[in-house]
Amino acid sequence: MTTVPRPHEIACQQVLLEDSSVFSVQWLDLPRHLAAGITPEYLLERYLGHLRRFTLGLVRPRREGGKVRFCLIDTPWALLEFSPPRYDEEATRRSLTLEICGGFLVQPALCDRGRLELATEDLGEVLRLRLQLSDFCPLLLGSAQPSLARRWLYRLTQAAIHKVVTVRFLLRLYRELEGPGACVRVVPVRVREGRPT
User: Tens of pLDDT along 2-53?
Assistant: First the structure.
């Protein structure tokens, strides 16, 4: 079932598209009185810190030569590597996009596909905070025609972890701004057609 998210709700969708790339989006509509100073750059810095805390230091985001790398503990091995951030600004929307350019979690032949976007959009009474992963080709799927076993393996591991990390990030951010007792629920949305992960 798809519902229309309201403030205090986190919208979420994760699907495999026809080419077996991943589309994942989560957003939170933040009441205007809580939104001062929140930019895509702010979201990125907070997200990187959250990722390290959430994984208990197993994943350590690093900035090296403009790139962003999600490294495994203190090793030089990147689970995911991103090109330097690209910034865009329109009338009511600002975004920061990290293009995937490598890492162990990406299919080697498709390591130049995929992007992570962090965006803010002024919707009047609320500021929408949005995280979106697009065109990502996970190594666990193996190819554009993954087996059922591979799809389930991806769904139960990497897809589940990504969803929990992003939802908890938006929840943490909301509670820091509104107060530790603030309640938020996750609601399904349909942005793209595909097979749920």
Answer: 455 666 799 999 999 988 899 999 999 999 899 999 999 999 999 999 999 9
- CA-to-CA distance for 66 and 161, rounded, in angstroms? 26
Q: How far apart are CA 126 and CA 176, in angstroms?
A: 17
For residue 84, what are the contacts with CB-CB under 8 A and spacing of at least 6? 66, 67, 68
First to last CA, the chain: 15
> Global pTM?
0.90
Per the structure block, which two tokens stand in for 90? 């329109």
The DSSP bridge partners found for residue 13 are 25
Cα(17)–Cα(192) distance, integer angstroms: 8
- Other beta carbons within 10 angstroms of residue 81's beta carbon come to 22
Q: Report d(CA 6, CA 163) in Å as an integer.
A: 19
For position 111, what pLDDT does the model report? 79
Which DSSP helix (H) or strand (E) runs through 138? none
